[in-house]
């Protein structure tokens, strides 16, 4: 998992693909962290992406480093139930506390990928499994 987290740290922004019915949806994300042997991602419970993941948890994450390597991380989104993960995410990104708090009623939903594959792919080369 550290290889995936390190890759995402190097890219900063990465892209999460979901399905909205039969229409693919892709959006940029930046929030991720490694904790308890998992790479965790955070999204808001009020956003369409959350509804899409509940309806169909199959996702793909893509990220590209400046050296031309790119990551394809594919799996099933599984939401965490322990609030410690959302608390850790908000501590790591304090600016998000303005969005996710009791006053707004918005909740940070944390998930990780299961049944996953992760491949580091060179622009002109073969991919290397990171799992």
Shape: globular
What does the radius of gyration come to?
15 Å
**Count of alpha/pi helices:** 3
Q: Quick check: average pLDDT?
A: 95
Q: Biggest β-sheet: count, sense, barrel? A: 8 strands, antiparallel
Strand content of the residues, in percent?
A: over 45%
Helix content: 10-25%
State the order of secondary-structure elements, H for helix, E for strand.
Answer: HEEEEHEEHEE
Unreliably modeled segments: none
**Roughly how many Å apart are the termini?**
7 Å
What class do helices, strands and sheet pairing give? alpha+beta
Oligomer: single chain
Structure summary, number of beta strands: 8
Short description:
Strands 1, 2, 3, 4, 5, 6, 7 and 8 form an eight-stranded antiparallel sheet that branches.
Summarize this structure as a short list of keywords or feature phrases:
131 residues; alpha+beta; eight-stranded antiparallel beta sheet; 3 helices
What does this structure look like?
The chain has 131 residues and is an alpha+beta fold. The chain is built from three helices and eight strands. Strands 1, 2, 3, 4, 5, 6, 7 and 8 form an eight-stranded antiparallel sheet that branches. Strand 7 and strand 8 form a beta hairpin.
């Amino acid at each position: 998992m550290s290889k995936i987290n390190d890759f995402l740290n190097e890219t900063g922004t990465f892209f999460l693909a979901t399905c909205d019915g039969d229409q693919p949806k892709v959006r940029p994300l930046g929030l991720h962290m490694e904790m308890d042997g998992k790479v965790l991602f955070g999204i808001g419970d009020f956003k369409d992406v959350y509804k899409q993941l509940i309806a169909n948890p199959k996702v793909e994450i893509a990220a590209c480093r400046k050296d031309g390597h790119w990551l394809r991380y594919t799996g099933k989104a599984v939401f965490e139930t322990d609030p410690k993960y959302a608390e850790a995410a908000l501590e790591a990104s304090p600016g998000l506390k303005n969005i996710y708090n009791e006053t707004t009623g918005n909740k940070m939903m944390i998930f990780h990928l299961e049944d996953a594959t992760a491949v580091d792919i060179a622009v002109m080369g073969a991919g290397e499994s990171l799992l």
